[in-house]
Each structure stands twice: as structure tokens, then as C-alpha cells.
């Protein structure tokens, strides 16, 4: 069973972060909260930073079909609608990377959160967009720091 868990991480990374691995930086936080507690806390933290939840997508259905026994894998999509709209209108090539997302999953007794660095995914020279990406990065760091034990 432990071997299967290790195989899940690359699958998870591949599903949600489609930029080449060498071009991105991943952030990870671990909490000893149970999955349901961590999911509620994550959503509350996202909202407390002024973001709106877009959706929560289950990942475990595909994993279950592959033979893994889990029901504790989700991706939480979030953003500020006006910011997402501005980026989409100004830079439509970045639409596939929006809204922001955090993968959350259970591992043994812990719950892990993983996200990409927005500044490494969306490369730009536009000062306004750079400032926005820096804010998103700072907010993700803040959310992860509050979630981590």
C-alpha cells in the first residue's frame, strides 16, 4: 500500500500542473488535521484572504478506477473574479492556468497541500501582472503557513 501512495504523487502533479517541472516551483504544506478538518480550514483561509472559491474538484474517481483506494484527493480552485477576468482579457494565453489552485490530499495521518508558484507559471514583463502574481504568491504562502503545523 505504501508503494501505491508514492506512485500517486507523480500522477497528481501531472494532472494539475502541466508546465514542465523544471519551469516551476512547487509549494507544499503538511498538517496533522484530518482531511475534512483541513479541507474546511483551507476553504476558510482562502476566503479570509479575500478570494472566492470557484469549485472543488474530486480527483479520487480516476485514482479509484486505477486501483487506488482513497476518497481524499481534491483540487480547490479559487481567485478574485475581477483579477481573473483582467488576466484572461489581457493575456488570454494564460487562461488554462487560472483560477489559482491548491491540491489537498490525505497521506497516512496527515493532510498535504500542494500548489505552484504563480510567478513561475505565468512569465511576463508587464509590471501590473508581475505585481498581481507577487500578491498571489504571497497569499498562497500565507495560506500554507497558517495551515501548516
- SS field, number of helical segments: 6
**Biggest β-sheet: strands ordered side by side in the sheet:** 1-5-4-3-2
Q: Determine the mean pLDDT.
A: 84
**CATH architecture annotation:** 2-Layer Sandwich
Rounded to an integer in angstroms, the radius of gyration calculated over CA atoms is 15 Å
CATH topology: TATA-Binding Protein
Largest sheet geometry? 5 strands, antiparallel
Helicity level, as a percent range?
Answer: 40-55%
Task: Note the beta-strand portion.
Answer: 15-25%
Number of structurally distinct domains: 1
Report low-confidence residues grouped into runs of 5 or more: 1-7, 9-24
**CA(first)-CA(last) distance:** 26 Å
Number of strands: 5
CATH class: Alpha Beta
Structural class: alpha+beta
Shape: globular
Question: Would you kindly provide a written description of the structure presented here, covering whatever features stand out?
Answer:
The chain has helices at 2-16, 35-48, 60-65, 81-90, 118-121, 127-147; strands spanning 26-31, 52-58, 73-79, 100-107, 110-116. It is α+β, with helices and mostly antiparallel strands and 149 residues long. The protein has one domain: TT1751-like domain (TATA-Binding Protein), CATH 3.30.310. The two termini are 26 Å apart.
Tags for this model:
5 strands; alpha+beta; 23% strand; globular; TATA-Binding Protein; single chain; 149 residues; 5-stranded antiparallel beta sheet; disordered N terminus
Put the structure in a nutshell.
The chain is 47% helix and 23% strand. The chain is α+β, with helices and mostly antiparallel strands and 149 residues long.
Amino acid at each position: 500500500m505504501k508503494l501505491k501512495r508514492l506512485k500517486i504523487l507523480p500522477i497528481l502533479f501531472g494532472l494539475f500542473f502541466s508546465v514542465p517541472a523544471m519551469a516551476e516551483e512547487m509549494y507544499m504544506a503538511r498538517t496533522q488535521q484530518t482531511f475534512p478538518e483541513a479541507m474546511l480550514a483551507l476553504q476558510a483561509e482562502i476566503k479570509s484572504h479575500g478570494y472566492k472559491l470557484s469549485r472543488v474538484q474530486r480527483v479520487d474517481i480516476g485514482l479509484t478506477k486505477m486501483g487506488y483506494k482513497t476518497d481524499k484527493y481534491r483540487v480547490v480552485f479559487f481567485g478574485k473574479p475581477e483579477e481573473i477576468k483582467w488576466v484572461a482579457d489581457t493575456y488570454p494565453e494564460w487562461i488554462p492556468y487560472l483560477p489559482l489552485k491548491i491540491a489537498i490530499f490525505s497521506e497516512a495521518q496527515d493532510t498535504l497541500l500542494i500548489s505552484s508558484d504563480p510567478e513561475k507559471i505565468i512569465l511576463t514583463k508587464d509590471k501590473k501582472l508581475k505585481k498581481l502574481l507577487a500578491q498571489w504568491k504571497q497569499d498562497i504562502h500565507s495560506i500554507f503557513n497558517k495551515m501548516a503545523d
